[in-house]
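ingest -> validate -> predict -> emit
validate: passed (alphabet ok, no gaps, 403 aa)
predict: started
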Amino acid sequence: MSEKQNNNKQINNFTIKEAINNIDDNNNKRKIYEFLWGDNKFFKGEDEDRKVQKVFDTRHSVYSCNSYAFQIKDSKENIVDNKNISDSKYFDSICKKLTEIFDIEDKDDRFKDKLREACSGSGSEQRRITTLHSSSLCALLFFYNVSEENPLTLIMDSKKITFTDVLFEFQNIVIEGRKPSNVDIVLLGKDADNGENVILFLESKFSEYLDIANQFDLGLDYLKKYSSIYNDNNLKNINLCICQDKNGNPKFFSKKNREKTEKYNRIKVINDAMYIEGIKQMISHYIGITNLLKGNFYNESENKLKEKLKNAEIYLGKILFDFHNMNIGNKKAFKEYFNNYSNKYKKLAKILNKLEENKGQIKKKINILPQLLTYSLFNKKYNKEDKIEHTIDSKIKEYYKLK
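emit:
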């Protein structure tokens, strides 16, 4: 076997157990993946030796040590290198593989439509969607089948809302000329009591929120335009602060961004451990929906919501996969971290809801859900108050150990 062939085998020929054993720089994530998929039971059946492959990191042009994807084969049964999986010609192969794995071939047409939506945002969604721990995959599998035939009922603000349609990767303008925000899930439904239209924008996270950072960079244009959000009082409420110079003014630095140099400020965490990117992302979604309600659509394809927005109650929230309910490692540590992030989210929701109360320039108020939603609510064991009702395919619940 040539060196090139051997390298290709190393990239593409892992069992789930072998893949997990190779994860080497994030102990918590390794424990999660090992608990969910390490025993290989999910993969037993006709395709018992189903393999996974390393995910190609496009930013650094290397194969990841810690990310693995379902092995995809083309129409000639050749393994597709994950480096090339974003090519649109492999879309049908990806769809075929996922419907086979999760035993949903009978819903192939609907799944394919929603998979196409989920892969339509900015970024490498088609590559990400095949990754075992992908947030995009998790969101797609749990919500793709929301329909008139299989509605999703959710209790929000003490109201019973029945959702009968869903969109994925909905794009909104945050700053003109910059990348849009991509909302993972948009649920369309009605209030069960008064029949009013309801739209819920949801950000979904699987294990990313375990990635702790102590700072993020914010463009000067963001800081100027959205100073009502990015100010000292608001940021301190969620243990963040703006880096300042010796005179107490925001301290800026320059860096190259897409062939041009721009000014940035740095937002830092104050004595805490936090998934700081999630805070920034929720603020961007809020800004994007604010622009949407003013009639500023990112592109014509997003106009599908135009009529529904006119007479709808608007909500924004976040759903996380909560691992502390599972028998993984140090359950107390997982729970404490989850509760800490949950408290940060509650404070951010309070800040944004207060801003909405003080607004007068847009007709529709955006209601920020005061608490995080969790995927464990799809398991009756943790959904004692029937907060969520929706039929999830059996293999999907098995894959995420929510049966």
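The CA atoms of residues 101 and 395 lie 8 Å apart.
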